[in-house]
Amino acid sequence: MSKAQKIQFQIDAHIVDSQCANDICTLVLQAPEIARTAVSGQFIMVATGDEKSHDPLLRRPFSISQCANGTIGLVYKVVGRGTKLLSKMTAGQKVNLVGPLGKGFKLHSQKKHYLVGGGMGIAPLPFLAATLREKFPDDPIAVLLGARNRDELICLDDFEEIDNITVACATDDGSVGYHGLVPDLLPGKINGTVYCCGPWPMMKAVAAISRQRGAACQVSLETMMACGMGACVGCAIQGVDFIENGYLHVCKDGPIFEAEKIWL
Amino acid sequence: MSKAQKIQFQIDAHIVDSQCANDICTLVLQAPEIARTAVSGQFIMVATGDEKSHDPLLRRPFSISQCANGTIGLVYKVVGRGTKLLSKMTAGQKVNLVGPLGKGFKLHSQKKHYLVGGGMGIAPLPFLAATLREKFPDDPIAVLLGARNRDELICLDDFEEIDNITVACATDDGSVGYHGLVPDLLPGKINGTVYCCGPWPMMKAVAAISRQRGAACQVSLETMMACGMGACVGCAIQGVDFIENGYLHVCKDGPIFEAEKIWL
Amino acid sequence: MALDSPELSVSIGNWQLQNPIMTASGTFGYGEEFADFVDLDSLGGMVLKGISLFPKNGNPPPRVVETSCGMLNAIGLENVGIDKFINEKLPRVSRYKSAIVVNILGDSIDEYRELAQRLNDTDIDAIEVNISCPNVKKGGVAFGTDHKMAYEVTRVVRQSCSKPVIMKLTPNVTDIAAIAQAVEEGGADAVSLINTLLGMAIDVKTRRPRLANTVGGLSGPAIKPVALRMVWQVARKVSIPVIGIGGITTVEDVVEFLLAGASAVQVGTANLVNPQTSGQLVEELADYLKSNNMASVHELIGAMEV
Amino acid sequence: MALDSPELSVSIGNWQLQNPIMTASGTFGYGEEFADFVDLDSLGGMVLKGISLFPKNGNPPPRVVETSCGMLNAIGLENVGIDKFINEKLPRVSRYKSAIVVNILGDSIDEYRELAQRLNDTDIDAIEVNISCPNVKKGGVAFGTDHKMAYEVTRVVRQSCSKPVIMKLTPNVTDIAAIAQAVEEGGADAVSLINTLLGMAIDVKTRRPRLANTVGGLSGPAIKPVALRMVWQVARKVSIPVIGIGGITTVEDVVEFLLAGASAVQVGTANLVNPQTSGQLVEELADYLKSNNMASVHELIGAMEV
Ligand SMILES: Cc1cc2nc3c(=O)[nH]c(=O)nc-3n(C[C@H](O)[C@H](O)[C@H](O)COP(=O)(O)OP(=O)(O)OC[C@H]3O[C@@H](n4cnc5c(N)ncnc54)[C@H](O)[C@@H]3O)c2cc1C
Ligand SMILES: Cc1cc2nc3c(=O)[nH]c(=O)nc-3n(C[C@H](O)[C@H](O)[C@H](O)COP(=O)(O)OP(=O)(O)OC[C@H]3O[C@@H](n4cnc5c(N)ncnc54)[C@H](O)[C@@H]3O)c2cc1C
Ligand SMILES: Cc1cc2nc3c(=O)[nH]c(=O)nc-3n(C[C@H](O)[C@H](O)[C@H](O)COP(=O)(O)O)c2cc1C
Ligand SMILES: Cc1cc2nc3c(=O)[nH]c(=O)nc-3n(C[C@H](O)[C@H](O)[C@H](O)COP(=O)(O)O)c2cc1C
Ligand code: FES
Ligand code: FES
């Protein structure tokens, strides 16, 4: 296979920007090779520790939240030692990346595109919105976001730059937008595809509502991952055809799946 | 044992200053408890990795090079991953220390004190010189330093502040002082005690010359250490009375030994 | 009341420990070394350096080397011998409230018998019998890897003393539960596991083993998964208490071992890295129980749900 | 000349490998997954995912968990089965210059026989027989921990095919050298070791094992000292080549295993962490030999000085 055909890379990426507030961080990385081949919904595996240390050993997976001009952007929450170490990195330092990985969203022109995100699951939606806008300049986009509170409602600014988009929010504490759960924001009639990323119960609810209302729904799943690239088959999940075809693998068959392949 | 009697401590020390040039670094740490009980020749064990990482697992031992006003100073060379990680730490960050550890130099007033250091073995000598000056204000001190070249001739400035002291240097490449080995700098007649720290062959030579010329000689030894505090007995070395009394332990019986206890 | 000061005490047969945090033999010296770092009245128990009938010099250096998340040691059981231990070392730690456990090792059944008899006349709280150390050529390995020999040592020690007898097992075997069952049958009051995994490291520059003894015992966080698995396997097979050892560093590690079925734990390599560890774990375990609304540490022991 | 391009090739019986760097089964997929990261013409060999007679779904998730300097896996040998493997997977990697080794596992002697016979008609370079995987309840463990069973599997596979036969050994035994001797006697061309150490981890919040299978196999840098010791012990006891496996990440790790007596090595978990590892190690090994003035990798094999 000639080098020109490569679509996945392991690279040392310079940090362009690294910001944290309330344990939610954004990281912008100079990664032209990855940015060139990435599509929305894909993720990268990030080495979070010192290169000479084997602890933590495994890379951590993060969705590509932004992708433009040779850079990719991540948004992540500090939840354990890998993300803690990453949050200490500063502009100018290098981070080793593997990506882009997995299968992204499947995109077709629609009457409307519904981007539904909850918590850190909002992360992949800015890249998706930007891609949709570019591919289908005239399709309206509705973004429906949910979070526990104002601080955890991430990426709001990222959608503002995009034309012909509406953004609605729901928070558990009512601090921003609707006081309640994000599935409630879905319209009675859904005129297009739903793309959903967030906590498992939220995705289940959104998938069920979409099916009820006759709309296609794509969901983004998470599992423990060792490699992120199809080598270890550690990331197994049961799809609806488990009995005939065995497990699906989130890093290779996903992380984006059609909801009906997972839940009926 | 009441807290007041404690002489050893495990503390988080603030970094006051951290500087590196040509892989030789100085680190000044705010460590009032340790500074209060430390004596020259003692060392501390430093946790070099991230507190949530178990790799590297063990602490690294470093001589106390300076000790004043509640701070202690280290001088170290980057030789592997522990020292590499330490060299990345910056002022304001914290480092976890255990110390002061081991037995320091034995000090008695002398006609003259000969402080002989080679390479990184120079590190403990500034604290020794300062202590000698304070304890025996009138005893002359001769410092004899050796290194491969100008860059590795460390701590030169530290001796300048001390009264009634002479400093002579030897370098392997002749870039500073005598072109040759530091034992050659020892006078034909040695009027006092020799304190020696450096590479094994150099210490052997200095100890042999001292014995020949009738002078007492103390040497500072290094071994692999797991704990540095007498718990693991990993730091064994053979002394001259090995057959009767078994191994000596560098972290507990040393690191400072009378040369004739080690070599006859 | 319960939630303010949760119950930490556990028992090994008739022997009551004030809490389940002990230190592991060979990593806590003769106890006193830690007086500046740990309140020596506060631990469940201190297991002291392994003691033999006669003093041992141990192996030549180098004796320790760091590995990934672990260390290898080939101390070779350097110790002062039982006489000097009883006369000089023991009196210095007996005054503390933490229970004193003495770890013994012999080259023959007779040596184990004699060690147990000698210690029976002291005021120590329990004897831990090391049949597992991989460092000495004679004895050590054989007793712990053969279930008949393990049974025999246990029986002899059991008959030679009235103190609680803890048999310390080696992980370097195909079926550790079978060895545990053998020592239970031999009359052990408890088993402790694991001792170190036999390992090696080579210095590529000199082409020589990094330990003068060539091989040594692997300890530290690296071995925790193996230790935890063995504790779980053994706890299901024996009805005497199990003391869990291997890579314990944090209170979560302690809880994992308790959930897997350990009634108490021993902290080893972590003492060498952070000398305050054992004392801190006692406090952190109490805090853990409180913040999880548990009245007693017994709510954790063996409580893993499969 | 020699110093410009040091000799890297090694042989396992009559089978010549272009260099001693192979990948370990289960960590390199079916090979192709790594095409963007490694020049698949450059390796000594690619050992592909373990294959059984019939497709296997493997264990339920979670299947992997990180530990200190290592990971536990309980994949449960998920694979496409021998038919689909031969028809679909094999053709896609046969075109590369790296040797192809197929790792097989059976629940019975008959299954091993049939797998070996089926593969004998393909153009693969060698068969690696997994008698060591700790994850499946039937077969797996028993064959590798009992030297008579290990001998029997070897003999049957040996008689069923003319390809080089590598027997892959489990470390979860008291005496791995005895098992190695048994498979040598059974006609193995080489032994590879070690497979994973059996381990466990518990989620203290849920009180459940972190792996759905409860126990799993520990791999990665954490186990390197154990692997290296076993390679050394086995290499001294058998006269067939030994392939070293366990925590290999850097070229120094490769050199350590060669010095301990391995004729080749397999890189496992490191592929998952840094997918470029295996290809880089081939280059770094050549550089290492050059910068140490060695004309051939054979100057390292078994060259540890004790
Ligand atoms: C495809 C994918 C995309 C993701 N995108 C994002 C994102 O854009 N932003 C974000 O904040 N988070 C994202 N995550 C989750 C993120 O990977 C975890 O939060 C991170 O790995 C935690 O690492 P840690 O060391 O800080 O936590 P740890 O201390 O290791 O564990 C904390 C929790 O994180 C989970 N976790 C740890 N390691 C992994 C792993 N290798 N794979 C999956 N889960 C793991 C565990 O379930 C654990 O409960 C994504 C996960 C996946 C699988
Ligand atoms: C009592 C004592 C005082 C010391 N004082 C100084 C000092 O003032 N300045 C200075 O530069 N160095 C000093 N050293 C040496 C210093 O400890 C090592 O250079 C350091 O531990 C190397 O760590 P590393 O991780 O960078 O190297 P590694 O990659 O771990 O190893 C590099 C080399 O350092 C040695 N080393 C590693 N760990 C230890 C250890 N725990 N104990 C002893 N040696 C080890 C090994 O022999 C190895 O060859 C002292 C050592 C001792 C024992
Ligand atoms: C330096 C050192 C010395 C040891 N000496 C002994 C000993 O004398 N007797 C014994 O039974 N175990 C000995 N051990 C084993 C420990 O008690 C413990 O079983 C093992 O290290 C695993 O626990 P850890 O991972 O917490 O260290 C020693 C371990 C180390 C690291
Ligand atoms: C995810 C995973 C899957 C594995 N699957 C297999 C397998 O199918 N067959 C086998 O013989 N070994 C299997 N192994 C064991 C490895 O081949 C190797 O022996 C072990 O991981 C030790 O090497 P390492 O530390 O370099 O990973 C697997 C290991 C891992 C981590
Ligand atoms: S994470 Fe390794 S195959 Fe998906
Ligand atoms: S280093 Fe542990 S006793 Fe000296």
Describe the structure.
The complex is a heterotetramer, with 2 copies of chain A (264 residues) and 2 copies of chain C (306 residues). Chain A is α/β, with parallel strands linked by helices. Chain A has 2 domains: 3-101, Translation factors (Elongation Factor Tu (Ef-tu), domain 3), CATH 2.40.30; 113-220, Rossmann fold, CATH 3.40.50.80. Chain A contains 8 helices and 16 strands. In chain A, the strands form 3 sheets. A 7-stranded antiparallel β-sheet of chain A has the order 4-3-7-1-2-6-5. Chain A has a 7-stranded mixed β-sheet with strand order 11-10-9-8-12-13-16, sandwiched between helices. The radius of gyration of chain A is 18 Å and the shape is globular. The mean pLDDT of chain A is 95. Chain C is α/β, with parallel strands linked by helices and 306 residues long. Chain C has a single domain (10-59, 75-196, 220-299), classed as Alpha-Beta Barrel (TIM Barrel), CATH 3.20.20.70. In chain C, 32% of the residues lie in helices and 21% in strands. Chain C contains 9 helices and 16 strands. Chain C has an 8-stranded parallel beta barrel, surrounded by 7 helices. In chain C, α4 runs parallel beside α5 (176-185) and α5 crosses α6 (224-235). The longest helix of chain C has 15 residues, at 277-291. The radius of gyration of chain C is 18 Å and the shape is globular. In chain C, 64% of the residues are buried. At the C-D interface, β11, β13, α6 and α7 of C face β11, β13, α6 and α7 of D. Bound molecules: flavin-adenine dinucleotide (2 copies), flavin mononucleotide (2 copies) and FE2/S2 (inorganic) cluster (2 copies). One FE2/S2 (inorganic) cluster binds at residues 225-228, 230-235, 249, 251-252 of chain B.
